[in-house]
Structures are given as structure tokens and as C-alpha cells.
């Protein structure tokens, strides 16, 4: 709205000057239209702040915009089904859901297990004018999609969501997700979504999503199950849940897949991965599509993963059982002289990279 040269054009000119390529640009404007926000970010702005300015939150908003942080937050860490019990208070009772916040308000959500309800509550409480996110569904087993109908921002007009995941032969991703809400299974269908929701069927490969590189590979699990590697700047976050690493003494051991997985997660800052069982538990669970923590630790060490997050715990396991798996993992890493740090995250835990 400035004479001669408006803010958008100025931003474009600044971004074309390679001598100041690292400059941070924040647009502060009375024009609160979503179109202007999208154009500003497309032209290279790092943030978009609308007037009137709240003096109590303005500087924190500026610091958030100009920081280059990537924040990982856990909303549900268990597998198969929620476990609300006194024995699950430490790590939480909800199933798979992780969020990843990146600069320029880019927001990624991985899986929609029961943990996504807490994420929904957090977004609603934040009273954001508009929610825009990319949702990645690893696979359509119920503990990864069954709380999507309770994600309130899907029903709010003006919000936008891109949902990514694998099709299953003749069944599209949209049908896989919406079938649980259809007919006798749920009283509300996807047709009631007020937000703009776009489904994207993807397989193995590389996608550029909001200027972020997202790589995907098929995992060792019944049906089409995808693992994801998000690359931003010099950081990489890998989400590899529901994956079976057959031990070397198993007839089903696949060294080629193991090598492919190691390459996929090599040098990542965070590997969030399936570790349902201990080696003893796995003896009666082979072929169920999940891994023993000992195998996961070996892969993380070989791939020189910086931080290993133990995830997707067997529902019968108590908090003490998870803590035991953490102790076993740390002991194995220490014995191998590994630099990998091992963490058993709880619901609500957040980590910045």
C-alpha cells in the first residue's frame, strides 16, 4: 500500500540481491488477507504480521519468525490402541501423532492416531485465524487414522490441509481415510469438512512441499506403509513407524532393505521409529510388522543417527516396560561406542533442532 514501490515488490527486489541472501524479511501490514500473506511468503518473506500489533506478543512473534528452528512435538507415542491406565501416566496413553513446526509457518503432522485430538485442542485454544498444514499418513491402520474425524480444524472454513499417503491398488488415499467416517461407522462424513482438504496419493520418491524436501520409502509392514524424511536446511527429521527389522538369524532377514533403510535415515537429526518389542518379546511376534528395540538401535548406530526416539510402544507395555527398553537401548549404544542419543519421548514433549 506504499506509493511507487509497495512492500511485496520491495521484498521481491531484496530477494533478488544475492549479496544479502541471508537477510530476514518480516512484513508488517494492515492488509490481513490470506492472498497477501501467501504472496509475501512466495516472494521470499520470512514472516507476515498483521496490524493491530499486540505489544505483549509482538517481539516473541518476531523472534519466532526470524529463528531458524525446527520444533518436533509428540502428541501420542503408543501403537495399536490407546492405553488409559495408571500404568501409562508417564509416557501417555495415546496413539501415533507427531507435529513438526518449521519457519514460515509451515506445519507438518505425522499420522492421526488418538494423539491428534490433543493437537486439535491446542490449535483451537490458540485461536489462530487460519490453520494450514500438511498431514502425512504412514498407512491406514486404525491407530494411525481413527482420530482424524476429531481434528476440529478440518471443520473450520478458511483452513487448508494437504493429506499425503500411499494409495492401496484400487483404493485411493481419500477412500482409505474417509471409509471409517462413512455410513454406519461414523455419523459425520468427509463431506462435512469445512476446510479445503486435498488428498495426494504418493509412493516412494521425493516431493517438494512448501519449499521443504520430503522423501518417502516403503517400509516392512503389511500393506503400503511409508516412512518419511523431512529435510530443511542442514537438518533432517525421519518418521519411520510400523516397520519390521527381521533379525539376521531370521529366514526373512532382508539385508537389501536394511541397507536401504540405513541410507534413508543416515545422519538425520531425529529418527522416530517403531520399537514395539524387546528381543525376547519379538520371538513370538515375528511377522506382525514391528521391530525389536535391539534391531532399531543397531540401525540407528550404523546410520549415525544423532537422536533416536523410541516410538509406537506395544499397548500392553507399562511405563516401566518403556523405561526398561530405554535402558536396554542406551546400554547397547554405550557398548557400541555410539554417539547416538536415545530418548523415550512422552506426550507433550517437544524438541528443537
Adjacency order of strands in the biggest sheet: 8-7-6-5-4-3-16
Helix fraction bin: 25-40%
The CATH topology of the largest domain is what?
Metallo-beta-lactamase, Chain A
The total count of strands amounts to 16
The CATH homologous superfamily of the largest domain is called Ribonuclease Z/Hydroxyacylglutathione hydrolase-like
Q: Which segments are poorly predicted (pLDDT under 50) over 5 or more consecutive residues?
A: none
Write down the secondary-structure element order: HEHEHEEEHEHEHEEEEEHEHHEHEE
Give the N-to-C terminal Cα separation. 37 Å
**How many structural domains does the protein architecture include?**
2
Instruction: Calculate the mean pLDDT score and round it.
Output: 94
CATH top level label of the largest domain: Alpha Beta
Question: Which architecture of the largest domain does the CATH hierarchy give at level 2?
Answer: 4-Layer Sandwich
Amino acid at each position: 500500500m506504499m506509493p511507487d514501490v509497495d512492500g511485496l515488490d520491495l521484498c521481491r527486489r531484496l530477494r533478488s540481491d544475492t549479496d544479502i541472501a541471508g537477510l530476514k524479511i518480516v512484513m508488517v501490514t494492515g492488509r490481513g488477507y490470506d492472498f497477501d500473506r501467501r504472496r509475501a511468503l512466495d516472494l521470499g518473506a520470512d514472516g507476515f504480521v498483521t496490524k493491530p500489533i499486540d505489544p505483549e506478543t509482538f517481539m516473541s512473534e518476531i523472534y519466532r519468525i526470524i529463528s531458524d528452528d525446527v520444533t518436533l512435538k509428540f502428541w501420542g507415542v503408543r501403537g495399536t490402541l490407546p492405553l488409559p491406565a495408571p500404568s501409562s501416566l508417564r509416557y501417555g496413553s495415546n496413539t501415533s501423532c507427531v507435529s513438526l513446526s518449521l519457519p514460515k509457518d509451515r506445519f507438518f503432522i505425522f499420522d492421526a492416531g488418538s494423539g491428534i485430538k490433543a493437537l486439535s485442542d491446542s490449535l483451537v485454544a490458540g485461536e489462530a485465524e487460519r490453520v494450514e498444514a500438511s498431514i502425512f499418513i504412514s498407512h491406514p491402520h486404525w491407530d494411525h487414522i481413527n482420530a482424524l474425524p476429531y481434528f476440529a480444524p478440518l471443520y473450520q472454513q478458511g483452513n487448508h490441509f494437504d493429506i499425503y499417503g500411499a494409495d492401496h491398488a484400487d483404493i485411493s488415499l481419500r477412500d482409505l481415510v474417509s471409509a471409517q467416517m462413512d455410513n454406519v461407522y461414523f455419523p459425520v462424513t468427509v463431506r462435512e469438512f469445512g476446510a479445503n482438504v486435498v488428498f495426494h496419493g504418493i509412493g516412494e520418491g521425493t516431493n517438494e512441499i512448501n519449499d521443504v524436501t520430503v522423501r518417502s520409502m516403503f517400509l516392512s509392514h503389511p500393506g503400503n506403509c511409508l516412512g518419511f524424511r523431512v529435510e530443511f536446511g542442514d537438518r533432517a527429521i525421519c518418521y519411520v513407524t510400523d516397520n519390521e527389522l527381521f533379525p539376521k538369524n531370521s529366514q526373512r532377514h532382508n539385508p537389501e532393505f536394511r541397507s536401504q533403510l540405513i541410507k534413508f535415515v543416515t545422519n538425520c537429526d531425529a529418527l522416530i521409529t517403531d520399537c514395539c518389542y524387546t528381543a525376547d518379546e519379538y520371538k513370538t511376534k515375528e511377522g506382525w510388522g514391528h521391530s525389536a528395540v535391539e534391531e532399531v538401535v543397531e540401525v540407528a548406530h550404523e546410520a549415525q543417527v544423532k537422536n533416536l526416539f523410541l516410538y509406537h510402544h506395544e499397548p500392553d507395555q507399562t511405563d516401566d516396560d518403556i523405561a526398561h527398553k530405554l535402558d536396554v537401548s542406551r546400554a547397547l549404544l554405550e557398548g557400541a561406542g555410539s554417539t547416538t542419543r536415545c530418548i523415550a519421548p512422552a506426550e507433550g514433549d517437544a524438541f528443537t533442532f
